[in-house]
């Protein structure tokens, strides 16, 4: 399956470290979302990724894996591998270090599936913020500068504004949308209803909905889909 990820409006992020109730899997996967992103920061392994993939693959929705670490990479029966680099961290491990380690250890990388993401993490209390030691208290001008570096200097296909677990500042997302020209703008964080989805969907090319799946269920997820589709 060839994926048209540049035109996705809505992506549902599913965490391999969290349990999906079997009775709700079908409603979540067939909500109308454009794609499923199998992704998490903590305790993600090939084993639990594979379990999650098996739960959802039968519905024919495009699936991509977003690994936090080389140990959480699978290529089989997925249509993309979205690989993040966190730009606003002082620790190069999360910018390029994990990536170098992965390339050194794996001679069979499916490069045709790889889509690099420039992450700008803006919630210091989030797992990804804590693990990567991201500098999150950035003014709008600094966020836009990071985004332009990603877009024009490094040519990242995706710039990802990540508030992970909390709803972000629409003015920052709007400013980034007006700054970048070539990258696709993803937004993730705190979208748990149609109103928030519509607001961020005005500025981001693609919204990513994750925690709402587990906290609010399929009804809330479907609201977010309808708001941007």
UniProtKB/TrEMBL annotation:
A Gene Ontology term for the protein's cellular component: cytoplasm
Keyword Nucleotide-binding appears in the UniProt entry: no
GO molecular function, a single term: heptaprenylglyceryl phosphate synthase activity
GO BP annotation list: glycerophospholipid biosynthetic process
Binding-site residues, sn-glycerol 1-phosphate: 13, 160-165, 190, 210-211
Catalytic activity: sn-glycerol 1-phosphate + (2E,6E,10E)-geranylgeranyl diphosphate = sn-3-O-(geranylgeranyl)glycerol 1-phosphate + diphosphate
Protein residues bound to Mg(2+): 15, 41
InterPro entries attached to this UniProt entry: GGGP/HepGP_synthase_I, GGGP/HepGP_synthase_sf, GGGP_HepGP_synthase, GGGP_synthase_archaea
E.C. no: 2.5.1.41
Principal location listed in the UniProt entry: cytoplasm
A Pfam entry, by short name: PcrB
Cofactor dependency: Mg(2+)
Pathway: Membrane lipid metabolism; glycerophospholipid metabolism
Keyword annotations: Cytoplasm, Lipid biosynthesis, Lipid metabolism, Magnesium, Metal-binding, Phospholipid biosynthesis, Phospholipid metabolism, Transferase
Subcellular location: Cytoplasm
Function: Prenyltransferase that catalyzes the transfer of the geranylgeranyl moiety of geranylgeranyl diphosphate (GGPP) to the C3 hydroxyl of sn-glycerol-1-phosphate (G1P). This reaction is the first ether-bond-formation step in the biosynthesis of archaeal membrane lipids.
Family: Belongs to the GGGP/HepGP synthase family. Group I subfamily.
NCBIfam families xrefs: GGGP-family, GGGPS_Afulg, PRK04169.1-3
Protein name per the record: Geranylgeranylglyceryl phosphate synthase
Native species: Methanochimaera problematica
Lineage summary: Archaea, Methanobacteriati, Methanobacteriota, Stenosarchaea group, Methanomicrobia
């Amino acid at each position: 399956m060839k994926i048209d990820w540049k035109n996705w409006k809505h992506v549902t992020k599913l965490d391999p470290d969290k349990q999906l109730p079997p009775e709700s899997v079908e409603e979540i996967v067939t909500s109308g979302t454009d794609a499923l992103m199998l992704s998490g920061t903590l305790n993600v392994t090939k084993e639990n990724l594979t379990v999650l993939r098996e739960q959802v693959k039968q519905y024919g929705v495009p699936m991509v894996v977003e690994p936090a670490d080389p140990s959480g990479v699978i290529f089989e029966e997925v249509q993309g591998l979205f690989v993040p680099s966190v730009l606003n961290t002082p620790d190069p491990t999360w910018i390029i270090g994990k990536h170098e380690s992965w390339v050194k250890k794996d001679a069979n990388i499916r490069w045709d599936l790889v889509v690099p993401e420039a992450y700008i993490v803006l919630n210091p209390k989030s797992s990804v913020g804590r693990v990567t030691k991201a500098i999150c208290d950035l003014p709008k001008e600094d966020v836009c500068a990071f985004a332009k570096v990603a877009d024009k200097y490094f040519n990242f296909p995706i710039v990802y504004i990540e508030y992970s677990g909390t709803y972000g500042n629409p003015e920052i997302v709007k400013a980034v949308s007006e700054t970048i020209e070539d990258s696709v703008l993803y937004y993730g964080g705190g979208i748990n209803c149609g109103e928030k989805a519509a607001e961020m969907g005005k500025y981001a090319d693609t919204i990513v909905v994750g925690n709402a799946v587990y906290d609010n269920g399929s009804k809330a997820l479907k609201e977010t889909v309808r708001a941007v589709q």
